[in-house]
Amino acid sequence: SVTSEWPVFKSEMAEVNWQVKEGAAAPAAYTYQLFGETEFSGQGTLDRLVDVTRLPADSTGLEIDLSSVVDRGQAFLYINALDSSDNVIGRMFYDIRVDDSNPEIDYDFLESPTAGGIFNSTAIEINDFLVEDYTRLKVRINGEEVSPNFEWHSFWGSDYDLAQHTLNFEQEGTQMVRFEVEDEAGNISRLDRRILIDATAPVIALEGPEAVETEEASYEVSGTVTDAQSLSSITINGDAVYMDSERANFGVSAAKSFSY
Length: 260
Hints:
Largest sheet: 5 strands, mixed
Strand content: over 45%
Distance between the termini: 77 Å
Shape: rod-shaped
Number of helices: 0
């Protein structure tokens, strides 16, 4: 019994199990053979890995050694059920794939979130998370499995595209978006994106009165701007009086005085 029409294992010891259908004759014995691709020849050439081997009647599974099968190669397992005269009364055939490669995350295609991105909402939009692999994929974001907007799968490969998804956080501050991708063989790729959620505006405190009447051609304004998460710049009448060019205020409280 397997969970896929094309079982996938790593190139190591793998377990295959079966059961006799209800009402079917009980086998007196089993035999099996194993073939596999030990190198890519372009011809689909298979080597005999295990010659005809006999198993007792009470067998419900066996371990097969796939360590010599090349990554992304095929293996073929043939199992015969025999009666007491060694006549074949049942057959099973497994077309097995071997996969030792981690899923490939397209880092450049991921539009959002960007590394070090700053968001003004606790609801973060994830756009265009694309993964390619040899087998079907499961994707978890911060531990929660997420279904794709588009998924394509064949014997030779899979594409997973999470075009749009909303991830909700409970509070502001520095957060981590953790992507985890697992294929059918158990190979895992991970991607972490550290972001900042800042939904609170800076506070401006002016020195002196809020309204001034003067006959002078100019007037000096001074004060302090404070922000709890990401004070980036201070501009007055379009002129920048402060710029956090080194992003030193990312995720930390800052207070900057100004005079103009």
